[in-house]
Structure to design on (206 residues):
């Protein structure tokens, strides 16, 4: 690897946590029970699992985007620091927790207690966006080399601009979860897609 090896172990460990969290998400999609299939048929029973599909898709895309941005952050720095381990650990703590609210939303989105599940779900994404912003703020202030290339500096500015908006947007979604569970869940997916398809660097990182 061309870069210094200071951050390699940290990235490898983080990749493992991301992979496990993404894999656990699919376990929340349950195979329809025979009793339900006997009453409604297999096709209708599969369609009835739409809350699970929504929660799985939203969480998977969100974790994927976070993983990509995590990789992007570590391409801009080539050294670590004691505090970086803890900021990175905070982000991984939030990411590893995502499968739990995903399971709750899958199970209770069309339940009378949907508000509790939706609030925890959007609140988890709010906490995750704050932790990613905190990780980047520390990295950009303390670990980005003063002699970094102009391209790296431009990308760092882009990241700063993006992460400035993520926590306020997820905070609005969190507030909305107290009003409409479905709208809150839908906007979580919309934000995930927005961050997935927008905001990439002007020049490739090859």
């Amino acid at each position: 690897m061309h870069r210094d090896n200071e951050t390699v172990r940290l990235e490898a460990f983080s990749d493992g946590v991301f992979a496990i969290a993404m894999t656990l998400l699919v376990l929340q999609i349950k195979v329809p029970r025979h009793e339900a299939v006997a009453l409604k048929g297999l096709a209708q029973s599969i369609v009835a699992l739409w809350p699970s599909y929504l929660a799985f898709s939203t969480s998977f895309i969100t974790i994927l985007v976070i993983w990509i941005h995590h990789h992007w952050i570590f391409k801009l720095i080539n050294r670590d620091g004691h505090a970086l381990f803890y900021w990175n650990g905070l982000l991984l703590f939030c990411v590893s927790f995502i499968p739990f609210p995903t399971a709750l939303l899958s199970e209770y989105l069309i339940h009378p207690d949907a508000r509790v599940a939706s609030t925890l779900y959007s609140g988890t994404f709010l906490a995750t966006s704050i932790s990613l912003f905190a990780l980047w703020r520390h990295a950009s202030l303390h670990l980005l080399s003063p002699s970094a290339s102009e391209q790296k500096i431009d990308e760092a500015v882009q990241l700063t601009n993006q992460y400035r908006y993520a926590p306020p947007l997820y905070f609005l979604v969190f507030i909305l979860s107290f009003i409409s569970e479905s709208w809150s869940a839908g906007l979580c997916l919309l934000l995930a897609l927005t961050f997935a398809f927008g905001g990439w660097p002007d020049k490739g990182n090859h």
Q: What stands out?
A: The longest helix spans residues 114-142. The two ends are 13 Å apart (CA to CA).
